[in-house]
Amino acid sequence: MAKKSMIEREKKRERLVAQYAAKRAELKAIANDKDKPVEERFKANLKLAQLPRNSSPTRLHNRCQLTGRPHAYYRKLKLSRIMLRELGSNGEIPGMVKSSW
């Protein structure tokens, strides 16, 4: 089980990414538009840099929905390998059969 603080920090990042997504996309569009004057593009870059760092989607990290574990994460199921095995053994994941020999 991951520390509560790490799980809460990740949730905070997700909220910030959602909150600033439109503004960030708008500023990036201005900054990448070659038809705009250099001064306007530069100002857009400065405004983009003033946004909170945690509002960048690249700072998000995939975590297990049940335990918060950041490693060995299966994107399709949003679970770590440990929880996947445990839930599969208990028969709680439809279509998954754990083989043992």
Automatic annotation (TrEMBL):
<dbReference type="GO" id="GO:0006412">
    <property type="term" value="P:translation"/>
</dbReference>
<dbReference type="GO" id="GO:0003735">
    <property type="term" value="F:structural constituent of ribosome"/>
</dbReference>
<comment type="similarity">
    <text>Belongs to the universal ribosomal protein uS14 family.</text>
</comment>
<dbReference type="InterPro" id="IPR001209">
    <property type="entry name" value="Ribosomal_uS14"/>
</dbReference>
<dbReference type="Pfam" id="PF00253">
    <property type="entry name" value="Ribosomal_S14"/>
</dbReference>
<dbReference type="InterPro" id="IPR023036">
    <property type="entry name" value="Ribosomal_uS14_bac/plastid"/>
</dbReference>
<keyword id="KW-0694">RNA-binding</keyword>
<dbReference type="GO" id="GO:0015935">
    <property type="term" value="C:small ribosomal subunit"/>
</dbReference>
<dbReference type="InterPro" id="IPR018271">
    <property type="entry name" value="Ribosomal_uS14_CS"/>
</dbReference>
<keyword id="KW-0687">Ribonucleoprotein</keyword>
<keyword id="KW-0689">Ribosomal protein</keyword>
<dbReference type="GO" id="GO:0005737">
    <property type="term" value="C:cytoplasm"/>
</dbReference>
<protein>
    <recommendedName>
        <fullName>Small ribosomal subunit protein uS14</fullName>
    </recommendedName>
</protein>
<comment type="function">
    <text>Binds 16S rRNA, required for the assembly of 30S particles and may also be responsible for determining the conformation of the 16S rRNA at the A site.</text>
</comment>
<comment type="subunit">
    <text>Part of the 30S ribosomal subunit. Contacts proteins S3 and S10.</text>
</comment>
<keyword id="KW-0699">rRNA-binding</keyword>
<dbReference type="GO" id="GO:0019843">
    <property type="term" value="F:rRNA binding"/>
</dbReference>
